Structure formats: C-alpha cells, structure tokens
Amino acid sequence: MARLPLSIALSDNPNTRPLIDGAVKAEGIDLTATVLHPSEMFWRQLRFAEFDVSEMSMSSLLISTARGPTPWVALPVFTTREFFHTRILVRADSGIASPADLKGKRVGVPEYQQTAAIWGRGVLENEFGVHPRDMAFFMERPAGKSHGGATGFKPPAGVTVHQIPASTNIGEMLISGELDATLLYLTDRNLVDRSRIDLSADKRVRPLFLDRAAEGRRYYAKTGIYPINHTVVIRRSLAEKHPWIALNLFSAFAAARAQVLRAGEMALACHFETGIIGDKVRMALASDPMAYGVKAARKVLETIACYVHAQGLTDRVVKLEELFAPATLEL
Length: 331
Hints:
By secondary structure, the chain is α/β, with parallel strands linked by helices. The protein has helices at about 15-20, 40-50, 60-65, 115-130, 145-150, 170-175, 210-225, 235-240, 245-275, 280-285, 295-310; strands at about 5-10, 30-35, 55, 70-75, 90, 105-110, 135-140, 160-165, 180, 205, 230-235.
C-alpha cells in the first residue's frame, strides 16, 4: 500500500527531533520535514499555508477559529511549554522592582497576539493585578511580517499598542531607554523578528523575576498550569479526505516524545540506584505535566482560550471541540 506523502514544518526541539531525523515514522505516511524558527513558521503557514502539517501558535489558532472555519484542524500535541511571564525583561534603572511597577511603563512585545505575550499578560493580570491597559505596548513586527497581519489583528479597545519603526527594534529601544521592559525578547535569525542584540550579559537589562525557576515553581504549585505555546495542525482538507491521518500523526508525535523520555529515564536510572536523586525528585518525575492529549491539558487549554477572549482578541471563548480533530478529543 502506498504511503501518503505530507510536508511538515517543525521547530527543532527534543520532542520533535525523532520525527525530523526519521528515527520515528508515522504509520502510512511519509513526512518531508522543514525545520523553521516558530516565528517564521507560523507567519508562513498563516499567510501562505505552505505545509500539510505544522506546529502552530495556540493563540493564532484560537483567534482564527473564532472568526470562522479555518484551513486547519489541530492535534492535541503540545511541542513547547514554558512559564512565559518569567521571561519579562526590564531596564535596571526603570524603577521596576516588582510586577506592579510595570503600570505606566513602556513595554515591548514582538507581537501583541503571540501566545507567549498572552500568557505573560494573563499572569500579570490574574496574579499581580496588572491589566494590559495599565501599560503602553510597542510591537516590533509590522502587519506584513506578523501573525496578526494574517488573522486581522487590531489593538483591543482601551489598550495602547504602538508600532515600532522599521529603523529600530526592541533590543535597541531597551538599550537606548525608549522602552522600560519587554514581555519577550527574541534574537534568533528568521524572516520575522529583527532584534539581534545579546542582552544576556548587559547590566542595563535584567529579568523581572530574578529567580525565574522559583517563580515558575510558585506559579505551578498555585495554579497547576504549565502554559502551552504550540500545538500541531493538519490541513483540514487532508484530514477530511483521509480521517486516519489524525490518529496516526498523533501516535507518531507521542512515540517521538516517549523516545526522548526513555533516554532521560535511562540516564537517571543509575542516580536513582545510588541515591544521588532523592524522593522529591522521584515523585516529581512520576507525574507528567507536559503530557499530550485534550484530557490531560484541558485546564491549560481552557485557560488560554479564556485569556485570548479576556484580552479582546476574540469576541467569544472558543471551545476545544472547535479546534481538535474529533478522533482526538477523548485522548
């Protein structure tokens, strides 16, 4: 039986690498992989629909779905997660010592509607009482090179969003003092983002949360939420013509992640045996906060859907049943 050839765009991370290098294959499918930075991948997919399968911005998928039928149907595969509010950077001389001090400040953002920014604003509002309208945002990506340019983004009512001129970028504006902070800072070379200055050792800029790991642990212990950034989408016309590909692809992504987890478990086994790793770490590893599937991630998915609506980017809260392939809803 002939295998179905599909193009796929993925970011290079441990969870997807076995699919990229061919160590894991999807049953009945030949995947031709293109590795791209997510900023560029989402822009190309939203604007030009280049790939049969790809990672996709969770927020852009929600926004597109709220506005009508999309060319895509999603799989409950979540390739990246992070506590995005811990990536906020501030100028050391800005007077920002705590999240509350962001009120009245000039805050950079690569793109207002990107998922990382939505999580950052959602946590600032719900954990620290800082509403998006309390800040003035400066967006780096222009409409032609943005995800919002493809989804019809308009600044939400009551929120100030300025466009950063093409002659400069977030990094330069932070260094010059034209910005006080940024929700996210991206310097990876791609066709969308244009900041390039390495701020990691620049004493003029520091993280808002000096101990990022501690803040991530605090937030997770309180909420049980490990924020999802990317999901995976299939071209809807293909999924309707070949319904079997949804579960076959999900199984391949799950197998790729299982391979990565097994490698990690083998590396840790000797440390368990010698007692180097204690009971607290053993208990933490017994659970899986990054599990794929709608059931395992429902709370996180419903939270980001509510945040997208609450921040004025959709006119309603999108239901999960509108996003994911029907065959995957019980996974």
